[in-house]
């Protein structure tokens, strides 16, 4: 099953769709995923920040990504 | 203590959030209500759109409340309700309500929760002006 | 800015106090609600009686709000409602609500008002316990 | 017209009535009034504080009292 990335807020606007399917083999870590996405979508690099969430938790760059993980790109939040 | 946390696309019932935290054991309730202002950074705002990654937002809200409970062990009740979808001027965007036995801690805990919510909870705000829209805080 | 100040022997309508301070120009509303706790200084409380010197209480409340406006010129709306008479456990004794354009000031101004109210506003509290009553804070 | 003092909270309990009429001539200042009352009702001296209000304002000891002033004794307040 291909890895899918959920997109929110401005990242959805930048990519132009609400989810993004990764090529196989998918990036193996959060850091590799971010590198891949920033190369594909340079506008992501302009954001104040862009984090990756794995299963609803903020994930550090070295964290491994499993094929069943729920992955999302998290641009700067602005609740409240 | 189980906090009352929700993200809703319906108008927020502020009275219900306040009632949810009231208890005979806690004499102090502090609440923060964030409403839609008619201006932002000098631009006139017409409307707001909030988008939420609900499951993560609730997970992160739970972490925020847990941190607050560690810092203020006297914290007895917490309610946080955040609106999503399209909001008009004056609409309530967020309510945080906390109950403690003593006054000062109710202010401190409520302020900690709203301040930290704004840093970590996965909700995004798009402001609509006379002449366009913008995702708030997206760019440096 | 004309604050909404009152001393009442009727149950306090919290929603009305909050509604009184909401305005499209102020995105932040902080409120403090003081309710009757079931204990005080380790003693079980059955009921409270508040007595008020109304005309002076309102005069002094006006001074408190004026001081808050001097310290936080961005303060846009203030409501303070204090109950008097006999209150049961859980009843609302006081509500302070303030509206400001920005968040931090709403917390600071609301806390200043309730803290200062407790020092200068001519309202007296008699707590009723299982075994007697006492005027709160009367003696050193 | 005799000067009347309004009493609240514990001062009403101490004096045993809600208003207190001053003898003529009445004390001329806030300080003189307090001295008179503390002498008459020693329990007032046991309070954490006991202020005098003239026309709804806290009044300093040296303030003169006029016959039309609204005077009240203010024991330690406990609102909120």
UniProtKB/TrEMBL annotation, chains A, D:
GO cellular component labels: molybdopterin adenylyltransferase complex
Gene Ontology molecular function: any one: nucleotide binding
Keywords, in A-Z order: Nucleotide-binding
Signal sequence interval, chain numbering: none
InterPro entries in the cross-refs: Beta-grasp_dom_sf, MOCS2A, Mopterin_synth/thiamin_S_b, ThiS/MoaD-like
A GO BP annotation: Mo-molybdopterin cofactor biosynthetic process
Presence of the UniProt keyword Nucleotide-binding in the record: yes
Classification via CDD domains: Ubl_MoaD
Family, as annotated: Belongs to the MoaD family.
Protein name: Molybdopterin synthase sulfur carrier subunit
From TrEMBL, chains B, C:
Residues in the signal sequence: none
InterPro entries xref list: MoaE_sf, Mopterin_biosynth_MoaE
One example of a Gene Ontology biological process annotation: Mo-molybdopterin cofactor biosynthetic process
Any GO molecular function: molybdopterin synthase activity
UniProt keyword Zinc-finger present: no
Enzyme class per UniProt: transferase
EC identifiers of the protein: 2.8.1.12
Involved pathway(s): Cofactor biosynthesis; molybdopterin biosynthesis
Domain of life from the UniProt record: Bacteria
Keywords noted in UniProt: Molybdenum cofactor biosynthesis
Substrates-to-products reaction catalysed: 2 [molybdopterin-synthase sulfur-carrier protein]-C-terminal-Gly-aminoethanethioate + cyclic pyranopterin phosphate + H2O = molybdopterin + 2 [molybdopterin-synthase sulfur-carrier protein]-C-terminal Gly-Gly + 2 H(+)
Family under the similarity heading: Belongs to the MoaE family.
Subunit composition and interactions: Heterotetramer of 2 MoaD subunits and 2 MoaE subunits. Also stable as homodimer. The enzyme changes between these two forms during catalysis.
UniProt-recorded name of the protein: Molybdopterin synthase catalytic subunit
């Amino acid at each position: 099953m291909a890895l899918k990335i959920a997109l929110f807020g401005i990242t959805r606007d930048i990519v132009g769709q609400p989810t993004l399917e990764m090529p196989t083999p998918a990036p193996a870590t959060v850091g590799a995923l971010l590198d891949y996405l920033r190369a594909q979508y340079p506008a992501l690099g302009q954001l104040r920040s862009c984090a990756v969430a794995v299963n609803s938790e903020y994930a550090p760059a070295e964290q491994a990504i499993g094929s069943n993980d729920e992955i999302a790109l998290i641009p700067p939040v602005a609740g409240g | 203590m189980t906090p009352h946390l929700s993200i809703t696309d319906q108008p927020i019932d502020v009275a219900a959030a306040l009632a949810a935290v009231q208890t005979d054991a806690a004499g102090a309730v502090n609440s923060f209500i964030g409403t839609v202002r008619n201006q932002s950074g000098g631009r006139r705002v017409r409307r707001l759109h909030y988008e939420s990654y609900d499951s993560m937002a609730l997970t992160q809200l739970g972490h925020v409340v847990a941190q607050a409970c560690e810092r203020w062990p006297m914290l007895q009740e917490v309610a946080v309700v955040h609106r999503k979808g399209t909001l008009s001027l004056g609409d309530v965007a967020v309510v945080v309500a906390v109950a403690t036995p003593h006054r000062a801690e109710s202010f401190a805990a409520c302020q900690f929760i709203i301040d930290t919510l704004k840093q970590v909870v996965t909700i995004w705000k798009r402001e609509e002006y006379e002449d366009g829209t913008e995702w708030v805080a997206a760019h440096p």
